[in-house]
Backbone:
């Protein structure tokens, strides 16, 4: 039996950032972080694009807007202080026609309200910033959007935690034993407060504590495709997104090391760690996810039917490539290389309304805190979000 003050489930960016914030405020607390894999950042945190978003996509009244704007600065400063890989390349959002100019203007309005540094540029200025970007009349330039190596960041935080923090690897949450005890695959842990930052499995754990019963997580697979010429672009190039959906569309991303890729997809997955073929297959998850996705398909909630058809077509390589080529003036499609490491995006579904939840969702138990929806851009938001979580935990300590 391990006894600890705080147990944190999940070794992704949220879990390690919360441990960092807690230890910084309360160095005498015993903090135990459990992670089911043999290293941190094995899932969403280590498989995302690494883009540090500026915070202009989100409505000003959302938690996403607050956490992203603050988080961008905090994580950028952290990377600079510790000499971690950081590519401060910036980003442009381009329009393909007059209708999409309305979307550009809406993003500028949101960014201004959120306090984000943005510039509306014409085609002449865009050519100076990003010569290969193609737009209709105007584009939006975000100088504070950058990119990191996400696994490097999470590992650095984990390896440099202060105070009384222990990270236990290969320890999988199995069940809640009683109000203040949980079991893993090897032992029991007695705690004063539990923080559930389990990502893809956060809803399952929360349900054992009687929390978030109306929610379930739906997995969407994100694929990226490498482009073998790193001179293609200087900045990230994004399309105008459909702001009613949580996905930003296929775009060009520069990596922390200067390589170029397109993606991601948002293909409905059939189990939670459905990365390759039948790896990590779970029959129970398959039937559960299929049930919810079939219900979404039949009811066509949030236009799921057309979204699913459109995303499934992206399994076809040429179709996937064509989703991106209109963003640039010149490209050699023969230079696209291999698919890169896929990720799974955990998207929270409200099963009562059959709507995807677009903002962070955190719910409290008697002596537990459950992060039910660490929605994108959770990586960018991690340090700001962890402050919010610790504020909430402190009220119950």
Residues:
């Amino acid at each position: 039996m391990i006894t600890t003050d705080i147990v944190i489930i999940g070794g992704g960016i949220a879990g390690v950032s919360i441990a960092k914030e807690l230890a910084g405020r309360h160095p005498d607390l015993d903090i135990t972080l459990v992670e089911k894999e043999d290293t941190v950042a094995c899932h969403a945190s280590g498989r995302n694009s690494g883009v540090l978003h500026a915070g202009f996509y989100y409505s000003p009244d959302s938690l996403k807007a607050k956490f992203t704007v603050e988080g961008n600065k905090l994580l950028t400063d952290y990377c600079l202080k510790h000499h971690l890989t950081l590519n401060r390349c910036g980003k442009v959002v381009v329009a393909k026609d007059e209708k999409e100019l309305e979307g550009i203007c809406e993003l500028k309005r949101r960014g201004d309200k959120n306090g984000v540094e943005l510039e509306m540029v014409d085609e002449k200025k865009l050519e100076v910033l990003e010569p290969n970007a193609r737009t209709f009349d105007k584009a939006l330039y975000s100088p504070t959007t950058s990119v990191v190596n996400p696994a490097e960041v999470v590992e650095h935080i984990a390896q440099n935690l202060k105070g009384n923090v222990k990270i236990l690897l290969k320890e999988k949450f199995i069940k809640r034993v009683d109000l203040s005890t949980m079991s893993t695959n090897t032992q029991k842990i007695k705690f004063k407060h539990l923080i559930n930052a389990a990502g893809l499995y956060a809803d399952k754990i929360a349900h054992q504590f009687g929390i978030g019963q109306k929610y379930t997580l739906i997995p969407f697979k994100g694929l990226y495709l490498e482009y073998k010429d790193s001179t293609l672009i200087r900045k990230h190039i994004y399309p105008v997104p459909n702001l009613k959906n949580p996905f930003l569309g296929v775009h060009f991303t520069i990596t922390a090391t200067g390589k170029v890729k397109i993606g991601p997809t948002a293909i409905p997955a059939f189990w939670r760690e459905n990365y390759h073929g039948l790896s990590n297959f779970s029959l129970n998850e398959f039937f559960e996810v299929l049930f919810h996705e079939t219900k979404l398909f039949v009811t066509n909630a949030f236009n799921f039917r057309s979204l699913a058809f459109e995303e499934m077509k992206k399994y076809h390589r040429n179709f996937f490539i064509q989703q991106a080529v209109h963003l640039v003036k010149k490209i050699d499609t023969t230079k696209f290389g291999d698919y890169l490491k896929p990720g799974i995006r955990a998207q929270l579904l409200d099963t009562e309304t059959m709507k995807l939840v677009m903002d962070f969702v955190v719910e409290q138990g008697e002596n537990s805190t459950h992060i039910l929806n660490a929605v994108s851009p959770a990586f960018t938001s991690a340090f700001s979000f962890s402050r919010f979580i610790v504020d909430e935990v402190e009220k119950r300590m």
